[in-house]
Design brief:
By secondary structure, the chain is α+β, with helices and mostly antiparallel strands. The chain is built from 6 helices and 8 strands; from the N terminus they run H-E-E-E-E-E-H-H-E-H-H-E-E-H. It is 46% helix and 38% strand. A hairpin with a 4-residue loop joins strand 1 and strand 2.
């Protein structure tokens, strides 16, 4: 093979790796009786990354990754971390699927939520293509919510997001040091 052909092949392989789409699926399940939110993160909907359930405790949230391992975080810490992590730099939201099964007790409040979703999709048609929701009325006192959030990214977008995050942190540290001197 010629060197020119080999360089072209390597360049094509690097571009494919950098720009190949990565789909991250996040599935959430909530049932009112258990008062826990189950979650499951996967690549392409097939390769499991992590799963468990989330429960609350006074002052925060416990993320249970196994029967013996849980991460505890306070509400304030969660809010601070949410503000620091620029989600949109790393992922693009592709689809949100929401399925709600409810009894008569919760129906009217959830129907109001469904109506707000319909109004928002008429105001912003872009969100109508992203958000898909179903509301079912069943017998009994029941509330089950399942949601699937699909995001898309590339290795290039991940590297770019990490660099932006590092630059922002350095600038904020530099501003803090400059203001204290």
């Amino acid at each position: 093979m010629s060197k020119f052909f080999l360089c072209g092949l390597i360049s094509l392989a690097v571009l494919l790796v950098l720009f190949f789409p990565i789909f991250l699926n996040a599935d959430f399940y909530y049932q009112i009786r258990s008062k826990k939110v189950g979650f499951y993160l996967s690549l392409y909907g097939k390769i499991k990354l992590i799963g468990g359930y989330i429960s609350t405790y006074p002052g925060g949230v416990a993320i249970h990754l196994s029967q013996k391992k849980a991460l505890l975080t306070g509400y304030r810490e969660m809010d601070e971390q949410r503000k620091k992590f620029p989600f949109q730099d790393f992922f693009t939201l592709k689809k949100i699927s929401l399925h709600i099964r409810t009894g008569a007790e919760y129906f009217f409040s959830l129907y109001a939520l469904q109506t707000v979703k319909t109004i928002v999709t008429h105001i912003r048609p872009k969100y109508g293509r992203i958000i898909d929701s179903n509301l079912s009325l069943v017998n009994g006192d029941e509330l089950r919510i399942s949601a699937r959030i699909i995001t898309k990214s590339t290795l290039f977008k991940q590297v770019k997001g990490i660099i932006k995050y590092i630059v922002r942190r350095i600038l904020s540290i530099w501003k803090m040091k400059k203001s204290t001197t």
